[in-house]
Amino acid sequence: MTRFNHAEAINELQELRTTNERCCERVVSLAQRIIDDNYTSTLGDQVWPFYEQAAIAALDTQNFTLANYCIDKLKHRFTEKSLRFRRLLGMRYEAQGLLDEAQEVYDSILKEDETNLLASKRQIALLKARRKDHELMEALTSYLDTYYDDCEAWLELCEVYASKYMYEQAAFCCQEMILLQPSNHIFYLKYAEICYTMNQYEMALKYYCKVLELCTDHVRALYGLHLPLNVY
Q1: Does domain 79-147 fall into CATH 1.25.40.10?
Q2: What CATH code would you report for 161-231?
Q3: Which InterPro entries does the entry mention (predicted)?
Q4: Taking 80 as the threshold, does the pLDDT of residue 82 lie above it?
């Protein structure tokens, strides 16, 4: 049997934190072994990001024993005054299915720091999961006031608007996405389809053509190209 190398495990976990890769099951496996072998005493100040990483991975895999252990360690060090620590409490509520409690935690964080990126993203994910579309639109709009260049958030807001038949607002989101990523053919396609839905056939035709400039064999764009032409 291969001997477990604690130093290599620590380096692997640090690399995963640097690259923002979750790899939850792998993180849980390595973290549990490091904790069981009392190797955390060698980590110094790096023990705190280690516990945070392990707690998040444990919550993702429903390993509440490990998650609670790590969260308790972090609570002893940082207390609930720490916004970053409170985000973990919100994530634990989410994992337990206590969505109202999780929402309260994220709301309290954003009251103290409305630009808190991590809490904003968790709040948005939670509102989406709960299908609270009105609150989701407000949260995304507020988020984009601070983080304007987040194309994923613009796309999310676009889709919520479109689902509510708010096509002018959805079209505006597409325009912002195109400005941010002018070489992404998906955003032109989305805009073309919304223009067609609003009976703006000339505009739809223009953007279907733009999709084909960027991706010559795009089937949906080729099909969409015939729709405005059939109207005339």
Answers
A1: yes
A2: 1.25.40.10
A3: EMC2-like (IPR039856), TPR-like_helical_dom_sf (IPR011990), TPR_EMC2 (IPR055217), TPR_rpt (IPR019734)
A4: yes
